[in-house]
Every structure is written in C-alpha cells, then in structure tokens.
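Researcher: Next sequence.
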Amino acid sequence: MPDGALPVLDVRGLKTVFRTRGGEVHAVNTVSFDLKPGELLGVVGESGSGKSVTMMSLIRLLPSPPADVRGGQVLFDGTDLLTCSDQRLRDIRGGKIGFIFQDPMTSLNPVFTVGFQIMEPLRRHMGLNKAQAAKRAAELLELVGIPDARQRLKDYPHQFSGGMRQRVMIAIALACDPQVLIADEPTTALDVTIQAQILELVKELRQKLGMAIIWITHDLGVIAGIADRVMVMYGGQIVEQAPVKELFRNPQHPYTRALLKTVPGVLGERPEKLNVIEGQPPILMSEPSFCAFRDRCAYAFDRCGHENPARVPIGAGHDVACLRAPVTGGSRDA
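Model: Next structure:
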C-alpha cells in the first residue's frame, strides 16, 4: 500500500435510518472513513453495531423502504455512489466493486448453474461472449482452488460444500477484477478448517491482484492476521480507528478494550473465566446526542449522557471517540 496514495473509496458523513412501525431506527450515524489502494481495512463490532448496514449503504444494496440513506457522500472513481444514476451504479457494482455476502448457503441462486452465475457479470460488465466468459469462469474457479473447474461450471450450488460455495462467491466477486472487494463476514458460516483456507486464499489473491479490501467481522483473531488497519464500530458509529498493531497494543476506547478482553490471551492475559460485555447494544430511535456505550461502560461519567464524542486523533493514524481519550491508559484506572 503506497504511502500518501489517494483513497480509492472516500466515505463522508454517511447516515442511514430504517423506518419501522415503532419509529425511525438510526442505524448508521455520520460515518466517515477512507480506503487506500491495496489496503485491507478490518471492520469489527458486535452484531447490531452497524457494520453490514454501513457497507451495504455504500453501494445502495439496502431495500428502500424500509431503509433510507439520508445523508453523506461515497466517492469512488470521481462518482458519488449515493447520487449517481442507477445505470452508473450497476456499472460500478459488481464491476469495479465486488461484494461477498455473509452466507454462502443462500447467496447463490439454486436454479442456475455455478458457471452461469460466474459468467453473468463477465458478459454484463466486460462484454465477453459466451465462449470467452466460460473460459474466464473456469480460470476463476481454478484461481480460488476448485479442482476440475471446467466440469464444475455445469454443477448447481447444492452440489458444492459450504466452503466450495464460498469459493464460488469469491470467484463471482473477483470476476471483473474489482478495485475494491467488500467481504461481509464471509467465513462465519464455515467450520474452522475451511475458514483458515478461505483466509489464506484471500491473502494470496490480494497479493496477486492488488485490490483494496474491506473485511467485516466480529472475530478479532481474523483481523489480527490479515488487516492493515482496523475500524471499531458501535451504535452505528466509528468509535476507534488505528493501524492493526497499534490497536491491539494500545486500545483506547472502553468498547475496544472490552472487545479485546473477550478473546482469551489477545492482550497477553489468560483469564480463568471468559470475559463478556454486560448489556446489549442500543436501539437508537433518535440520532444520538450522547455516548451510545455509556450504559455498558465502566468509565462513564455525567458528560457521557449529554454529549456524543467526536473522534479525535491521539497518535499516527489512531483516533478515538471518547470523552476520556486524553487520559486513557494507565492513568484512567487511577
């Protein structure tokens, strides 16, 4: 990843709400970040923290209604993805930005062959004829480690194992040589052995193809092994962002610290009992005017209930949204 390179993706002030019978749920609240060419950005947080909704908002994949992307900009290749035409978005989505969905069991269409599903974006975005698309589809299956690729193009999704289906999903996402790949918890539904194989595959493909990747997960162990930079989300906001080694060595937000403590040994400690974060993530029925983590935070004080902290820089590439940020570390516990 070249230093000082211009972002391939620049997200500014993204806001997304869901209209429900009980009112509006503010799922993404003024999220801003960028992605450099060739970078792997890890996005972590509990279920309900806004990770997947944020990334699906970027390329307008959420059904509207109930979802409403209410503000912000998503700049890619000189285009604001939130305001561009549907035709322009279709050219970019699947062509220049690939997306791997969370569940390989349901993401493939069961009534079409795997070959047809890989060939479709090749013909749509790259203008290949049927024979060219079939040749390229077989090459993609070989690239993601599926043997007898040409024969397997004729098979249907139910004829593949879970791990093989996820490899097919990766092949589809990579079909048009995207500049950006968004992977939404792509190994969650797979067993540990297959997870490790998929992670190694992604590392190899990233080196070969040089694409930028956003990897969404709740697994901090995965992030430690593959990411360059980590973005921690809570309550639809980014609460901390740092290079991966810095985040694990020097976590500053109470939520980041709590997350790391739930993984045995990640902070050099071996607790007798597994740590948990007490309480539940908030359901935000209004735009937050307070710290969303306050009710679960051991360090909360009166201001946390009246002020939603902005992210402030505390080191090279390291910023945190916490009213106690200047006194985190050893002095906080004093």
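Model: The CA atoms of residues 311 and 321 lie 4 Å apart. The longest strand covers residues 23-35.
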